[in-house]
């Protein structure tokens, strides 16, 4: 029984990680990493904590990750069959797909007219949010720990007191002619 | 044994549409209770933090609809706490718009001239100020320089930010911990409290019913202060006058849910929703071209690389707010900041060979995030939004603990709306791609539909009962004593940021609401004063020390 639970956990974790890695790809965490395809340099959504964010009770997705992983793997099996790909049975079907195939499958599932689009969009939103804003972590702690997403976008660090201030912020000179019909209050006429 | 609580005036919501009536009616002598669905935060409770559970996820809601997603305030002070405080007046032609109904959509009694005195009042009360080019952040300066390079004009936009306190941290959507943003927590709301109004946070109104004497019962649930999916006790307050100002994404939902008790709503309740014609484009600048073509450089040597620095939108180009252009082809273009977490996913990769909004190419685009410039189009949409049946509670089925839900709004843009968006997209590209300055792509509408931060018109004023839910005094047709004063009352898209217009309309509605209250026996007078204003945001009374 315990082994089954752990297998189910592993399927869920690897499948959701492979999904997140397709949204924001990253480098493999270790040489034989299967969930992360290694399609981009630097950490991606997985290293940024997409699974932690999705499992966070506040996200509202924790309870549905397992069924979503199951549905995604069913799509992957169907997709592989359509494409004539044989899948490595030692990992979940979506994980067994090459990065390019994972991408094509997600393009299909995230298309405007796909009946399941909404549930996959939700997963994509949170995968991206883990990367670009580390929403499962305090932003200061995430920056201090070198969070790969905040680092990638080049998000500035705060002052020593933890607050952001930009005392230099302006080019300091007129840069365009004003609209000729601007009123005395600065509004359009 | 419960005795039902009662008040003279019950206000639903504490944004512009709620705070302004709450102040005037309390100042005039009425007993006023304000029920606000969201929490009451102020000052240093506004976190500079993206973590779930920080103020950034507590004070606004992102409601995904079918074809349109809406970002709206969810806290005491409503949108004024979350917004970017950009406060232009609507151009004169807007009030003459006809829209898809083919006749003037604003009441005959309102045009720019008749609204200007009310704009003046709000401008003084917040206050709203003009500022100079030396106070324009880099992003606004870059947009202005690109406009000038393309032979266009650009203006610093009036705003309700106290620049002596502002640090240009761009955390405005999490609430301003410096009290630099002149939110309602600094003027109308403390003034309402001083005159005896009560503000109750975490009270979500679900529906109204009628009392035997022509008044109303307002039915609410208490919202858990951490997990908004959890509702606690319910309660009822009786009132002689009800002011519904829950925001254009919620006001029609409350009214529609009240139909079994109140009887049918006017047909325009929950119809004619406008997303203010909003549309976003992301430009990614070539820093070398910014320097060589526009001649811009920052102290320290960078040309731009300042997406993070500033205070939301500060510069707009109004060249297409030309009354001689056909309706649906007029729009403003405004430089905007959109924080991570909510907008970056919708930005698209120019010349993508694979997916445009996710994947490896998108990650490369994100590496250049500091060189992004977001351009906000506000155009003339066609009021095509329609609300479906109300959800069980609130205005959405909440997905996450805070912030994210699924709502009943359906929005299918008409050809006219799409024509305006296409013209604006082409214009943005023309301005920003000249001489290799930047590459530009619109945000995709394929993920969460169109996206508005300025929901309007879902319960609008007008002269025609078929196409307007409210008369020109903001009273709900068929339901005397119920007034609507929030963004849902605005008849249509404004082509500029709407907060000042929403506030001016609320100010304009007050004398009429006072008269209606008097007719219902409420001892209230209209003094026409304005709040004095404070430099420290209002806290809940129990916490004031």
TrEMBL record, chain A:
It comes from the Bacteria. Pfam families: DUF5987 (PF19449). This is Gluconate 2-dehydrogenase subunit 3. It comes from Micromonospora chaiyaphumensis.
TrEMBL record, chain B:
Keywords: Cholesterol metabolism, FAD, Flavoprotein, Isomerase, Lipid metabolism, Oxidoreductase, Steroid metabolism, Sterol metabolism. Signal peptide: none annotated. Residues 68-258 form the Glucose-methanol-choline oxidoreductase N-terminal domain. InterPro entries: Cholesterol_Oxidase, FAD/NAD-bd_sf, GMC_OxRdtase_N, GMC_OxRtase_C. One of its GO terms (biological process) is cholesterol metabolic process. Pathway: Steroid metabolism; cholesterol degradation. Its cofactor is FAD. Pfam families: GMC_oxred_C, GMC_oxred_N. Residues 451-506 form the Glucose-methanol-choline oxidoreductase C-terminal domain. Its EC number is 1.1.3.6, 5.3.3.1. It comes from the Bacteria. GO terms for molecular function: cholesterol oxidase activity; flavin adenine dinucleotide binding; steroid Delta-isomerase activity. Residues 525-545 are annotated as: Disordered. Belongs to the GMC oxidoreductase family. This is Cholesterol oxidase. It comes from Micromonospora chaiyaphumensis.
């Amino acid at each position: 029984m315990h082994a089954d639970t752990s297998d189910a956990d592993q399927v869920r974790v690897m499948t959701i990680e492979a999904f997140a890695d397709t949204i924001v790809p990253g480098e493999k965490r270790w040489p034989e990493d299967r969930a992360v395809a290694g399609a981009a340099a630097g950490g991606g959504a997985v290293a940024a904590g997409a699974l932690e964010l999705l499992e966070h009770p506040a996200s509202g997705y924790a309870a549905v990750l397992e069924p979503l992983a199951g549905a995604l793997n069913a799509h992957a099996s169907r997709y592989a069959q359509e494409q004539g790909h044989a899948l490595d049975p030692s990992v979940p079907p979506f994980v067994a797909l090459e990065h390019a195939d994972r991408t094509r499958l997600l393009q299909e599932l995230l298309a405007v007219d796909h009946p399941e689009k909404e549930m996959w969009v939700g997963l994509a939103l949170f995968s991206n949010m883990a990367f670009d804003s580390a929403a499962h972590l305090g932003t200061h702690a995430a920056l201090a720990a070198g969070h790969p997403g905040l680092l990638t976008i080049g998000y500035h660090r705060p002052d020593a007191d933890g607050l952001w201030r930009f005392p230099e912020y302006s080019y300091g000179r007129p840069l365009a002619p004003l609209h000729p019909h601007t009123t005395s209050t600065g509004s359009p006429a | 044994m419960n005795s039902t609580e009662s008040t003279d005036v019950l206000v639903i919501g504490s944004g512009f549409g709620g705070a302004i009536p709450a102040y005037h009616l309390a100042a005039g002598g009425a007993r006023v209770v304000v029920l606000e669905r969201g929490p009451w935060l102020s000052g240093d409770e506004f976190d500079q933090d993206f973590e779930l559970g920080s103020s950034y996820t507590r004070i606004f809601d992102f409601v995904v609809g079918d074809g349109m997603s809406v970002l709206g305030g969810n806290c005491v002070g409503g949108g004024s706490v979350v917004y970017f405080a950009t406060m232009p007046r609507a151009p004169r032609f807007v009030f003459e718009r006809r829209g898809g109904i083919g006749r003037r959509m604003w009441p005959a009694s309102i045009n720019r001239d008749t609204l200007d005195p009310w704009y003046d009042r709000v401008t003084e009360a917040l206050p709203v100020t003009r500022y100079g080019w030396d106070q324009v952040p880099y992003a606004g300066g870059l947009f202005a320089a690109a406009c000038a390079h393309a032979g266009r004009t650009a203006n610093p936009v009036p705003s309700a930010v106290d620049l002596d306190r502002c640090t240009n941290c761009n955390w405005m959507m999490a609430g301003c911990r410096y009290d630099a943003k002149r939110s309602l927590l600094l003027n109308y709301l403390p003034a309402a409290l001083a005159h005896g109004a009560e503000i109750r946070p975490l009270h979500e109104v679900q529906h109204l019913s009628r009392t035997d004497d022509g008044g109303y019962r307002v039915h609410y649930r208490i919202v858990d202060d951490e997990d908004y999916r959890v509702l606690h006790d319910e309660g009822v307050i009786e009132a002689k006058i009800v002011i519904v100002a829950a925001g254009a994404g919620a006001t029609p939902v409350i009214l529609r849910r009240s139909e079994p008790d109140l009887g049918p709503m006017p047909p325009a309740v929950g119809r004619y929703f406008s997303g203010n014609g909003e549309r976003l484009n992301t430009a990614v600048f070539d820093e070398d071209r910014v320097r060589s073509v526009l001649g811009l450089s920052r102290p320290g040597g960078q040309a731009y690389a300042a997406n993070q620095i500033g205070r939301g939108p500060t510069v707009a180009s109004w060249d297409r707010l030309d009354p001689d252009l056909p309706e649906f082809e007029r729009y403003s273009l405004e430089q905007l900041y959109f924080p991570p977490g909510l907008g970056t996913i919708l930005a698209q990769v120019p010349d993508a060979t694979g997916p445009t909004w996710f994947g490896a190419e998108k990650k490369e685009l994100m590496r250049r995030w500091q060189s992004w410039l977001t351009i906000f189009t506000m155009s003339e949409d066609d009021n095509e939004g329609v609300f479906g049946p109300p959800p069980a509670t609130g205005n959405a089925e909440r997905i996450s603990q805070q912030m994210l839900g699924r709502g009943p709004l359906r929005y299918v843009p008409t050809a006219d709306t799409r024509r305006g968006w296409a013209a604006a997209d082409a214009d943005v590209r023309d301005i920003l791609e000249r001489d290799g300055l930047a590459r530009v792509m619109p945000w995709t509408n394929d993920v969460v539909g169109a996206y508005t931060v300025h929901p309007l018109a879902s319960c609008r004023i007008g002269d025609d009962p078929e196409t307007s839910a409210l008369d020109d005094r903001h009273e709900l047709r068929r339901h005397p004593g119920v007034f609507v004063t929030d963004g849902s009352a605005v008849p249509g898209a404004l082509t500029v940021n709407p907060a000042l217009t929403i506030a001016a309309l609320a100010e304009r509605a007050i004398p009429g609401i006072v008269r209606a209250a008097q007719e219902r026996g409420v001892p209230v007078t209209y003094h026409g004063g304005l709040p004095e204003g404070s430099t420290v945001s209002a806290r809940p009374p129990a916490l004031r020390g």
